[in-house]
């Protein structure tokens, strides 16, 4: 078995349920040898995770998953190997986090209108360390008995057109890529199969992403069906993008793939880590 590489994961700093150190320990126990922590819009867990990884002899990659508005849609861009001390990235993420607080109030007001009280406090109770997200509202709503599980709570309340959905403007693609590249990081388009864009819009997105300095895309991810993997491998090749893989793990039982379970990248993909010294260290 090849050494496991997982370049997409979440801790309690965003909407994961394990603290950064616990996440790293879980990854190590599942055979992961090189891990990126990529919390949504927040780099606050990287130092703790890096220290744990170092103690366990695991290669650790700084990461962040930036929320972006593109053509009236939300897309996610991973910054891998970002520096935690690049001022524009720090400021840009702080602004996104501030926007999340405003959005949370809008979400709570929408839920209030259909008779669900207390969701703002309820969501914040689940968001102890960093950002506030729809996942924290989802946990509150399930706990309060408004839905039975995560998939149904999103469907019922938290997606476009539902009472707890609040239209929000995230960072522009240009800004997000500028911050990542400026910090010395590698921009990777996260889970392209999740965007439901249609072929023309997907090609436009990949073209713009490339033009703005995007370098890679997730080909293997917990969000892709087996059919999507070769499809996005072909698009990566067509747009000369490097390929990445990550579980998007959010904690035990969180309706995402567990760590240490990812299939290999298809033949012909150039891995985003092809020239990383950290990858050399695990072979
Ligand atoms: P936000 O960035 O606040 O919009 O929250 C997005 C997060 O909610 C994603 O990163 C997922 O972790 C989670 N999420 C979104 N859609 C779903 C869904 N249908 N089922 C379960 N989790 C979801
Ligand atoms: Mn998430
Ligand atoms: Mn995502
Ligand atoms: Mn993610």
UniProtKB/TrEMBL annotation:
The family database entries (InterPro entries) matched by this protein are listed as: 35NBP (IPR049742), PHP_dom (IPR004013), PHP_domain (IPR052018), Pol/His_phosphatase_N (IPR003141), Pol/histidinol_Pase-like (IPR016195)
Where is region (Disordered) located?
1-20
**Organism of origin:** mine drainage metagenome
Q: Where is the Polymerase/histidinol phosphatase N-terminal domain?
A: 5-70
Pfam families found in the cross-reference section = PHP
UniProt GO molecular function: 5'-3' DNA exonuclease activity; 5'-3' RNA exonuclease activity
Question: Could you tell me which PANTHER family the record lists for this protein?
Answer: EXONUCLEASE, POLYMERASE_HISTIDINOL PHOSPHATASE N-TERMINAL DOMAIN-CONTAINING PROTEIN
**Protein name, please?**
Polymerase/histidinol phosphatase N-terminal domain-containing protein
């Amino acid at each position: 078995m090849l050494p496991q590489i997982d370049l997409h994961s979440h801790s309690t700093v965003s909407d994961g349920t394990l603290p950064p150190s616990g996440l790293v320990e879980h990854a190590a126990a599942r055979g992961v040898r090189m891990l990126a922590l990529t919390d949504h819009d927040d780099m606050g867990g990287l130092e703790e995770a890096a220290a744990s990884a170092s103690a366990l002899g695991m290669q650790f990659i700084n990461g962040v998953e930036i929320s972006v508005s593109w053509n009236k849609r939300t897309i996610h861009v991973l910054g891998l190997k970002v520096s935690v001390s690049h001022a524009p990235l720090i400021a840009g993420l702080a602004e996104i986090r501030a926007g999340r607080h405003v959005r949370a109030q809008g979400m709570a007001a929408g839920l209030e209108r259909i008779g669900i009280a207390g969701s703002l406090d309820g969501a914040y109770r689940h968001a102890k360390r960093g950002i506030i997200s729809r996942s924290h509202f989802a946990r509150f709503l399930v706990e309060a008995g408004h839905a039975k599980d995560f998939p149904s709570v999103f469907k019922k309340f938290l997606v476009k057109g539902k009472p707890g959905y609040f239209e929000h403007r995230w960072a522009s693609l240009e800004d997000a890529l500028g911050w990542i590249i400026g910090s010395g990081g590698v921009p990777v388009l996260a889970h392209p199969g999740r965007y439901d864009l249609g072929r023309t819009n997907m090609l436009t997105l990949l073209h713009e992403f490339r033009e703005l300095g995007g370098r890679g895309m997730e080909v293997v991810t917990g969000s892709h069906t087996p059919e999507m993997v070769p499809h996005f491998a072909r698009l990566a090749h067509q747009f000369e993008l490097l390929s990445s893989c990550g579980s998007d793990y959010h904690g035990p039982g969180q309706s995402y793939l567990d760590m240490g379970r990812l299939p290999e990248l298809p033949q012909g993909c150039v891995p985003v880590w092809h020239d990383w010294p950290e990858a050399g260290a695990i072979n």
